[in-house]
Design goal:
With 182 residues, the chain is of the alpha/beta class. It is built from seven helices and six strands, in the order βαααβαβαβαβαβ. Strand 4, helix 6 and strand 5 form a beta-alpha-beta unit.
């Protein structure tokens, strides 16, 4: 099976303590794991996509505007990859594919499915934040599109511990995903 690593929303706004919509410490704790699995995929010449939220300032038409504070605004440092992922992306720009998304799922409104199918990908490995929001919605869409799903438990986090735990159970028990332990 050909596989891909998706690093979802591992940005300053979602991870750094001062981020606009931060997971805080649980997100920061993922840094070494996500960097390590990214390096492993790169060494194995397997594709890596970083897929990040993109929002416009004061967009009254985006549904998240009513739900969350402004985050991942175009042109702000909040959209930058966090920590070691920023360094890895800088060093491997020719290998790591950056994709913008404007909804929770990495598949909604993007050409991700086309990109993966053109590469013969059947296996999706998920890391990033938030487990119970963007990771969850991406996993549901991946399931509906027929991909085999692998969620790296040491590579996902949320600002909502109960939501995080529920999502991990849902991945395994409802979507048939494989949970890769720390």
């Amino acid at each position: 099976m050909k596989k891909v690593l998706l690093v979802i929303d591992y940005t300053v706004d979602f991870v750094a303590i001062e981020g606009a919509l931060t997971c805080g410490e649980p997100g920061i704790a993922l840094e070494d794991y996500i960097a390590g699995v990214t390096e492993h995929f790169l060494e194995q010449h397997q594709p890596v996509f970083v897929i990040n939220d993109l929002h416009e300032i004061n967009d009254p038409y985006h549904p998240e505007s009513a739900l969350f504070p402004a985050h991942n605004i175009r042109g702000t440092t909040g959209r930058s990859l966090y920590g070691k992922m920023h360094d890895l992306y800088t060093a491997h720009r020719d290998e790591i594919i950056w994709m913008d998304k404007t909804r929770y799922s990495a598949f909604a409104g993007t050409d991700l499915d086309i990109q993966l199918r053109s590469r013969g990908i059947t296996e999706i490995h998920l890391t990033g934040v938030c487990t119970d929001i963007c990771i969850l919605h991406t996993a549901v869409d991946a399931y509906n599109l027929g991909y085999n799903i692998f969620v790296h438990q040491g590579g996902v986090a949320s600002f909502n511990p109960a939501g995080h735990d529920w999502a991990l159970s849902h991945f395994q028990n409802t979507l048939g995903a494989t949970i890769i332990a720390h």
